[in-house]
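for the record, two folds in this file. i put them one after another cuz i was lazy. first one right below, seq on top, structure tokens after. the second one comes after a little note so u can tell where it starts
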Amino acid sequence: MIIRWAEATDEPGWRRLWAGFLDYYEMSLDREITDFTWKRLMDPQSPMKARMAFDGAGALGFAIHQHHPSTWVMGDDCYLEDLFVDPAARGQGVGRALIEDLAAHARAMGWKRLYWNTEITNTAARKLYDRITPDDGHVRYRLTL
């Protein structure tokens, strides 16, 4: 398995994984939003980036993240916004590898914390996350504007 930054040529594989991610959460987005997301991932000026896992057969998963200043530490935090592994590749360490890779990148950049959230009912992902770090007890609220 190789983990690296998403590149323009990875678009078909990323879109396949992104569709699986949306299907898993029973969500649909307008194509324009997906197009805009990919464009931001490819924009060197955008804080939103993607690491992708690959094997000889293609894209296995992605970790979309962004860093931002924090009021709680002397430095930046890294928010892992979206993590997805192809169902055919689950149970092979891809999700853990993507998180560990992102944590190593964050440390190298001098960022202070890596955080993420998931659906409370996502028991498979939570099993992995609980092995990496305990949840911090926070509940997310979202106000659509």
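(here's the note) second protein begins now
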Amino acid sequence: MKLLIVDDAKLIHFLVKKILKANDLTNIEFQDAFNGNEAIEIAKDFQPDLVLLDVVMPEKDGIETLKILKENNPTISVIMVSSLGTEAKVTEALGLGAKAFIQKPFDESELCTHVKNAS
């Protein structure tokens, strides 16, 4: 499984990998992007099975990035991750094709369940 982690905080990248490995999800190839523009470019070549996508980022936010990722690959699985889980953002992300919305700080079992369901 290929997982693209998109978040401007390096700590999130580290924590996601640590949590997944600690829960025996070791068959994952990771790629990192730190803003929306980077994510779009990496996804073209990497072709991830799942994208964990932060909502608030510099250059291009998660909602705009989600739109472009889905235009480029309508079947891509995207899970939005944010500390700003307003109802409007959740509704918009799900309406644009996100599979789920995880609130930061995220629950380890919830993260693992979503990743397992995407693989």
